[in-house]
Design a protein that fits this description.
The protein folds into 2 domains: 112 residues, Immunoglobulin-like; 367 residues, Alpha-Beta Barrel (TIM Barrel), CATH 3.20.20.80. Strand 12 and strand 13 form a beta hairpin. It has 12 helices and 16 strands. It is globular, with a radius of gyration of 23 Å. The longest helix has 18 residues. The chain is an alpha/beta fold.
Length: 482
């Protein structure tokens, strides 16, 4: 049986107490920022305007942008470092990134800028593709100064590296004795990046630590697996401990000082088993095992490795759908699972941000793991197919809905993403054997657009309908109870 976080069970039970049918206050006393990432469309000048218009109509209010160091640096393909003042932003080719951040600023969307690999060839230790091996800390510090000087107030929050516990983004992941190598490499990069941003004159920068991938290993056996062992991910909590110089019991292991961070960033992707799935490896963190990350951060704070109460930012997330052969669920389940995942994140008061990756699917790639061999994986987490045709998630994402089956009824939770204040959403229900929907109830939202409803009415499918003040109609897809 799949495990459901205890906090979620408790909250749903409280919602049920509210009555057989009626509204209640939101399940948590907070809102969360939702970042949207559409890198492929936004980096392309031809598709950028339409992508921004789509996101605006979907209710996007915040953007995540991944800035690849090699995309903008001088002489990125050369093994010899060019002679230039690396902290001078005028010497970089910012290109499409400027256009993206300028438009985001015009729309008043806060931007999370994740600065990541690949890096210039001259900044790596081996000068070999894919240019991710042991990036030089000093070079990175100077680059981050240029980034912060160039973008200044256009960036509301920085994040250092994308999935540094994954061999497609940082190498080596492992030492020759099978212990993790990437955590200490990342620690150096994070400290260098932090210093670089402060050198740009930002006295109290908002910087996220981590951006970890959800699964991996604590140790590998190089003797038995040979070079294949070095291409495994490091499990996120093993990575966290290593980067903070903690042992397996979260006690200090070395003379490292405490790190300052504005939050811990994580990518809590899950498997086709669904968002409530809890992986058996205790150092893995999928969306259904968020409590593991909360506890790890508390233990790290107790060891004085980080400040207390560090918030969690889920900066990259999506549910893979068909036609992904390995990880895809049906497109109907994608809409349901995505909303359930957002509800889990919202119900955890430690979570400050959720996210959606992507707008449009990538082309199909290889099986998971193909990227470490130079191939492409391809994510089918978008609201649209690669062709541009819409999935149910396209109409579901603006008005996410979850229906949770309880002992004597159902608990509904939802959000009107376009709402700019309290509003009213219409909840529809289709009874078993019926071909049409009827109104179950009109429910008021809170000032952030969130709402809840307890109901004893049996149904086969539920959906929500909302009309904006401008007259735009939104109607989500059919949603089943789980």
């Amino acid at each position: 049986m799949l495990k459901i976080p205890r906090t979620l069970i408790t909250l749903l039970a409280l919602a049920m107490v509210a009555g057989a049918i009626g509204t209640s206050t939101a399940l948590a006393s907070h809102s969360q920022t939702t970042y949207f990432e559409a890198s492929n469309e936004l980096l392309n000048a031809a598709t950028r305007p339409h992508a921004f218009e789509q996101m605006r109509s979907l209710g996007v209010h915040a953007l995540r942008v991944e800035l690849a160091w090699a995309d903008v640096a001088p002489g990125a393909g050369s093994a010899t470092r060019p002679s230039f003042e690396a902290t001078n932003p005028g010497l970089y080719a910012w290109g499409a990134y400027d256009a993206i951040l300028t438009e985001a600023q015009r729309l008043h969307w806060p931007v999370l800028l994740t600065v990541t690999s690949p890096v210039p060839r001259w900044a790596t230790s081996n000068h070999k593709k894919p240019y991710i091996t042991r990036p030089d800390d000093r070079d990175f510090r100077e680059f981050m100064t240029a980034v912060a000087l160039h973008y200044g107030s256009e960036v509301s929050m920085y994040s250092i590296w994308n999935e540094p516990n994954h061999p497609a983004f940082l190498m080596p992941q492992w030492n020759s004795n099978g212990t993790p190598a990437s955590p200490r490499i990342y620690r150096g990069l994070y400290q260098a990046g932090y210093e670089g941003i402060k050198a740009a004159g930002i006295a109290h920068p908002k910087i996220l630590f981590g951006e970890t991938a959800p699964t991996g290993y604590d140790t590998v056996n190089v003797r038995s697996e040979k070079s294949r062992a070095l291409l495994h991910d490091v499990a996120p909590l093993a990575f966290l401990r290593g980067a903070l110089c903690l042992n397996a019991n979260y006690r200090r292991a070395g003379a490292c000082g405490a790190l300052s961070m504005s939050g811990y960033a994580h990518h809590a992707y899950t498997l086709p088993a669904g968002p409530k799935y809890v992986p058996p490896i205790s150092d893995d963190v999928t969306i259904g095992a968020l409590s593991r990350l909360s506890r790890a951060l508390d233990l790290a704070a107790r060891a004085h490795a980080i400040n207390a109460h560090v918030p969690i930012y889920l900066t990259e997330f999506g549910v893979q759908s068909k036609p992904n052969r390995q990880l895809g669920v049906s497109v109907a389940q994608q809409a349901e699972y995505d909303a359930i995942s957002e509800h889990i994140a919202y119900s955890n008061p430690r979570v400050a941000a959720f996210s959606q990756y992507l707008l449009r699917d990538d082309p199909l790639g290889g099986a998971p793991g193909a990227s470490v061999h130079g191939g492409t994986v391809g994510f089918q987490t978008g609201l649209e197919y690669v062709s541009g045709s819409r999935k149910p998630l396209f109409v579901g994402w603006p008005v996410p809905l979850t229906v949770t089956r309880l002992r004597h009824g159902f608990s509904l939770w939802g959000l009107v993403r376009q709402a700019t204040g309290a509003t009213t959403v219409t909840v529809l229900i289709r009874r078993s054997g019926s071909k049409s929907y009827r109104i179950l109830k009109k429910v008021p939202t809170d000032s952030h657009g969130y709402w809840t409803l307890s109901s004893s009415t049996q149904g086969q499918f539920w959906r929500v309908r909302w009309k904006s003040p401008a007259g735009v109609k939104y109607e989500g897809p059919p949603i089943r109870a789980y």
